[in-house]
Batch of 2 targets.
Target 1
Amino acid sequence: MGKKVAKANRGIPSKAEAFTEWYPFIVEAAELVDKRYPIKGMDVWRPYGWKTMRLIDGLTHAEMERTDHEEVNFPLLIPEVLLEKENALVARLKRAREEGVDPDELRDEEEEAGFKKEVYWVRHAGENELDVPMFLRPTSETAMYTMFPLWIRSHADLPLKVYQTVNTFRYETKQTRSFIRVREIHFFEAHTAHVDEADATRQIEQDLDIVDRLMHHLCLPVLKAKRPVWDTFPGAWYTIGIDAIMPNGRTLQVASCHHYRDQWAKAFDITYETKEATQAHVHQTTYGMSERLLGAVVGMHGDDSGLIMPPAIAPIQVVVCPLVRKNATVDTVAVSHDVADRLRQAGFRVKVDDRDLHPGQKYYDWEIKGVPLRLEVGPRDVEQGSVFAARRTGGKSPIPMDGLESGVRETLDAIAKELRVRAHAHVDEVVQPLPAWKDGSLETPVEDGRIYELAFDGSDADAERLERATGMGFLGDATEPYPEPRPCHATGEPTTRRVLMSRSY
Amino acid sequence: MGKKVAKANRGIPSKAEAFTEWYPFIVEAAELVDKRYPIKGMDVWRPYGWKTMRLIDGLTHAEMERTDHEEVNFPLLIPEVLLEKENALVARLKRAREEGVDPDELRDEEEEAGFKKEVYWVRHAGENELDVPMFLRPTSETAMYTMFPLWIRSHADLPLKVYQTVNTFRYETKQTRSFIRVREIHFFEAHTAHVDEADATRQIEQDLDIVDRLMHHLCLPVLKAKRPVWDTFPGAWYTIGIDAIMPNGRTLQVASCHHYRDQWAKAFDITYETKEATQAHVHQTTYGMSERLLGAVVGMHGDDSGLIMPPAIAPIQVVVCPLVRKNATVDTVAVSHDVADRLRQAGFRVKVDDRDLHPGQKYYDWEIKGVPLRLEVGPRDVEQGSVFAARRTGGKSPIPMDGLESGVRETLDAIAKELRVRAHAHVDEVVQPLPAWKDGSLETPVEDGRIYELAFDGSDADAERLERATGMGFLGDATEPYPEPRPCHATGEPTTRRVLMSRSY
């Protein structure tokens, strides 16, 4: 499998100079996916890519179990009538926002929200036209909230916290990119229902804590920002977007949390009996992530030799390469297998590469795939009672066979740490204060590859002016505001609101 | 979650007398799935059901890893043109069979095979009609075999062994039943390619060995039979069906293996360079299983108190119930949590039920869900240094706290063994020799709830006559023939072919 790719990938594009070429090249050369499937934007996950994604899923599932979420699995297909229900809700919320009134005062109207334009339709089965047209889920609010009223009766049933990992679909008309913009999306979604707004807010806080824990494993610094109103998920009270930062300075939303208050509950009639025996609507949240997490890992950590996998999600954490010397008295292949067995016993994911190839060719293959640690086993190493460790992040040193397991653990930890240091240095370099406004324009023009932060408490018109002047979008209010008030970029009034602007995927 | 169901399930139907009512009742009462989703035949997997299914998947995945299969994930949508390719192949094979000629001598014709009638079509996305109509995979031969020619170049790439666990779709017009006949199917499929027919045959042997290992965990005896020609998967050289036996004697195909020879390879142009530098077509196999495995577990092991989960796939293997006595000096709740912690440490899946409910109500809940082992922790048990173990298969005895872990392991093993003994006894009772043929009919009529075996080497017409006389279908040739020849049921000629007949789901 994959001979052709292995031969073809000799000339890896430069990541720094040609990221838009480097990315698709490396995704295929490392055999994460195959893009040659005959539908655009629907890639085949190859074993190495799928294993990586499943390891990321595994971390997510562990977090869900830790925080008392339960895993469910909903049907892929959703009847059209539920989309209409959602559209009516979204249209009403939009009008309420525009007119500055309470959405409860408005009635649903037949109005087209955007969703219909983004879904794949199933209207035929076999030779029949279906009585009830259905669509492929783009996300599962409507499917789930149809069932919630059947599951929630009283306050004792709350909070209800469920999640699923499923395939979702968006009819993308923009250019597709593996993991980043695809038409079939490997998607994680948690949905919760609570007794009141405050409890739902606590859930959002827990979600953001989970994000931090996951990103630590992925060695990915992220920006967390409360999206501006015009970029809030329709149907949400507010949305917090979690963005990774790609090497070209563009932000990539890898996760998002939505606080729905009781807006969906009212549309889907999700009520419960309170302790006081009255009926109340639940307050809801969602937390979503996708295969973009893998796209961010690829983009952030890779280099001109290929991927660099964070140890927590590396399908192969350690590759053991025996060095075979003619006339050697030591069986390095046998020792390599012993080393691998010991490490597997200790819980590491290990592969022995005893192919009859030049070591350089082997190293090249595993560098492209981003295996964090390579152990070379040569006759002299064996004689000296050690193996030679080459870190994918750079640097080589022997690890004594005595204490092999702890030596490997420490080395992998050091690699993860190095990835975090590099990634944070990148973010510190990329995120800069927005130049001041002077004489109708920015004092100095914005630079390519940067993200800007600014104290901001201005109007939507001010925001629009800044977006036009920079060619960038408002990511929103960083969840960590300035510790002390600063003058607003637009009005000069003091504010602690720290707003981020970026070009985003 | 689920209060309503818990209240409603007081009157469980009798399994022996009303299996067709018992089954759907128990599936919902145990909270495996919720059938109230607004599309018929598409159930919502609830946490308990999904966890069970994922544990079954976990066993399958372990077997796949053990046998060097690699996990992939293919797109759900398949372009229509590939279905036409498949249809042409199937139609040609069918004609070749009917005309008794080599299929290679026939050319493809525009002919409609059955598949088009069974798939869901995606012809629209957003407001557009798609240029290329697509369908939801019913299985992934066409999707995968489109990619195989890109992955297979030479004999060094073979065998290629991949698998995936995905959602598949069939437009069912028959009555749907949870797990057994659904429209969205949780499906496992392994696809392999080999240098020649013999190597593909060895793969089928490995598949059947894997089936045995999995069924041991599920405590399910199965029948393995090479399907008659008229029941062979279209496109296969031969099909081996693996059937579980439900309490009503009907067989339920839970898995199947197909030997494709080089028939698909010729249709999809999958060739490789041999060691002799010539080009040859690969030989292929598939091995499929589905959520029907869970349906069989429910049907085979349950009783009038609910499910009985085989320990290997029980989401909760042990439930610990503290008995709270007034004025007791022992904190049984604290001891219960200690017991649970010790067992979790040892790798068991454990839950403490410290709800403030009457013990009888608790026991009832966990019996419905089929938890194999209940540990009761009362003040006297604590004083005597033991816990009281109640097996879901019947029987109670104390387990000393000293050696708790090994006591629980032995008890769970005993429960699994008991399930196997019961299931095998059921099969031995159900499978009977077919009554002899006499004076134009069977000597004694067939009985309800039975499966029949017979020595058979007759013609298709003989088979048809028997099917008509019994109202049953030919399952095919058991993979274990008679050790000694017997006279054929139809012709009287000696044969070791052991043919099975049943009514099937």
Note: Chain A touches chain B through 61 residues (CB under 8 Å).
Target 2
Amino acid sequence: MPMNQQIILKSRPQGKATVDNFEMREVAVPVIKAGQVLVRHQFLSLDPYMRGRMNEGKSYAAAQPLDSVMIGGTVGVVEASAHDNFQPGDTVVSMGGWQTYSVVDANEPGAIRKVSTSHVPASAYLGPVGMPGVTGWMGLTQICKPKAGETLVVSAASGAVGSVVGQLGKSMGCRVVGIAGGAEKCLYVTQDLGFDACIDYKAHADSKSLYGALKAATPDGVDAYFENVGGVIMDTVLARTNPFARIAVCGLIAGYDGAPLPMNNATLILVNRLTIQGFIVSERMDLWPEALKTLGEQVAKGKLVYRETITEGLANAPEAFLGLLKGHNFGKQLVRISA
Amino acid sequence: MPMNQQIILKSRPQGKATVDNFEMREVAVPVIKAGQVLVRHQFLSLDPYMRGRMNEGKSYAAAQPLDSVMIGGTVGVVEASAHDNFQPGDTVVSMGGWQTYSVVDANEPGAIRKVSTSHVPASAYLGPVGMPGVTGWMGLTQICKPKAGETLVVSAASGAVGSVVGQLGKSMGCRVVGIAGGAEKCLYVTQDLGFDACIDYKAHADSKSLYGALKAATPDGVDAYFENVGGVIMDTVLARTNPFARIAVCGLIAGYDGAPLPMNNATLILVNRLTIQGFIVSERMDLWPEALKTLGEQVAKGKLVYRETITEGLANAPEAFLGLLKGHNFGKQLVRISA
């Protein structure tokens, strides 16, 4: 039996996360017991929420314990099964973590899900038909609730979540404006994803310049905003909101390194009667089936397009993750762990 | 016929508002036409929202025009009527403004409302059974939505809005904690209004000290917050929120003079999955009848108590208003215009 390679959290970041916060180790592949399934991972999903887990104390959820395998969503193939619902060769989605193999208790509700790769590629279950896709769907349909003709703004527009939000927004009849970093990403957002406009925040030296570009792209103001970033970008978009605008706060990547992240003009909450709501996709599991059905159909039909950045090999996961936090990825960031 | 005394907005504040922004003038009392009612005002309501109207441009609503009578809610007596529904001697509530008399078009929906003073004093229709009371009821029942056993925090707790919020919160079975300025107000909030605790923000030199006091008063965290103030107080309360806390933003008095009002830790929106919503009571007129019915019954039964600061004479309205912005009033700030 081959060994199980694992990447553990070795230390908590002081400010910015670095590769030294991680360490690779090898352990024996566990033997499964009754009700368990052994999965060999094909792809690991890297996501911004992981940065929050690396901090001590109060964040999204419980902190990632030190010296344990980093948490993460995976898609893989069943190698051995002691549960009637799973057979060797099945493709499954689970929270396998940053490692080659994992053992899943298949009786635990929601712990493992069998998926079909006949119309949807396996990796898409970590992207548009997985957690990022459901995140986009949920924030859009439950909080942003845009009506046809309204203007929807999406930050991190070329990313795994933002790209879904914008495409769904277009299908709902909205004017959709993305914000992304770099001309190449912006071109992708408008040409491939079909957004009406995209603002390259890197092309603007200050918030005034950014505001000018946003104003030009949102002549009727902003009715709904899907927030992935925070900081200056959030302040700028809030300044363009119309009365009764809805803001879904999905991520605040600008604040993940622990620096204070002020919202500079809270008065707008009152002046524009805004609704600002933070959410975490895993807290509304009741909504996942409907979301996955919609997203799977759209991907299978080719109506929901997506892009992936695939890093080869588990050993390169830490560097790929740090790059994700800096926006170096283009679309969904994955790590290929095995063929 | 006596003259009509009026206070007009003479100039817009540069930073803090001053008495020089106002001017008194006398004009003839108008003659009523068909459908109109002439009202002699007994009480004028002074409210923080008026400060927003004094600024130019985007705020709650249209700016108060220069050289016109300051907007304001009034309760008064019908002096003359050319409308079948109103008779001389009726007590009526309307937006009469900062003046002795006003003419109301009684056919305009919502412009004038006849009220009974048999169980509720006339002035209460500008307080607990008027706009401030409905504001408290609306933010509490539509946004804060506290459940029995939850902890509700209210800033400006001794004020016209806050006092209603807290008493209704108690009747819903919540632990209610007020924030007010000064020991005397805090004593009133706990002893007369029946809040479980009240924090005197003036007794705390910095936000750390204020946080310590709030922590002691909210051992189970904060589930709902009714915000009247903003700034350091808002930041401090947000830092005590539990997951899924609801924040109704009714007023941000700390920002009314135009200084930037940052929310220093927007990351909490995501970490605690907060819902923060600004609202204006006049935008949900459909809810007023239910609110007024509840509030009127509670006041008539003596179950909803309130306090008034009555300034004598229209000429003293500007000074009373500036005092209100600094928290010099104690309970609902009124101006007695005539007997």
Note: Chain A has nine helices and 15 strands.
